[in-house]
Specification:
The chain is 4% helix and 48% strand. By secondary structure, the chain is mainly beta.
């Protein structure tokens, strides 16, 4: 992925480097965008950075997860023979309806991820791994039109008042 920050309507180019170490060919690669939210029963001093139960400081009954697929699964038919390597590119469009930006707080962590998978010949389901992405604006994009101020200039602008002389 060329970036980790996207907006609705952006096209994400996913480059797969598939190493097939099995005795059966790989027939599909796929990607699906998911929206995931992690809730706490009480406020935490720091937000959870991951979307897994074992990284949260609260017990099983003190936390909750929701996950839902956004849009349709993007699938590409491939033919990767056994014991071989192949590079495959898959383009996924983030739907325009994705409006809620990624955010973290002591109560809620809300974000997005891609489930990236491969499906072997003869299997019903794909084996997935996840890749976290962020929806929203990159930090600092809104300040690009403002002139850059060096540290020396900032210190001179915020100079303390002259010393008191009686």
């Amino acid at each position: 992925m060329p970036s980790l920050v996207y907006k609705g309507g952006d096209t994400v180019i996913l480059d797969f480097n598939v190493i097939n170490k099995s005795a059966v060919p790989i027939k599909n690669i796929c990607a699906k965008l998911c929206e995931r939210t992690h809730f706490h029963a009480r406020n935490q001093h720091t937000p959870c950075k991951e979307f897994t139960f074992h990284t949260c400081p609260l017990g099983y009954f003190g936390q909750e997860y929701t996950c839902r697929k956004i849009g349709s699964v993007c699938t590409k038919r491939v033919d990767i023979p056994p014991y071989s390597t192949q590079s495959v590119t898959l383009a996924v469009v983030i739907p325009e309806t994705v409006k809620t930006p990624s955010f973290e707080s002591g109560l809620i962590t809300h974000g997005y991820l891609f489930e990236l998978g491969v499906q072997a010949q003869g299997s019903w389901f794909a084996q997935y791994m996840t890749a976290k992405i962020y929806i929203g604006d990159k930090k600092g994009d809104e300040d690009e039109d403002e002139p850059k101020v060096t540290m020396k200039e900032m210190l001179l602008q915020n100079a303390p008042p002259p010393a008191y002389t009686p």
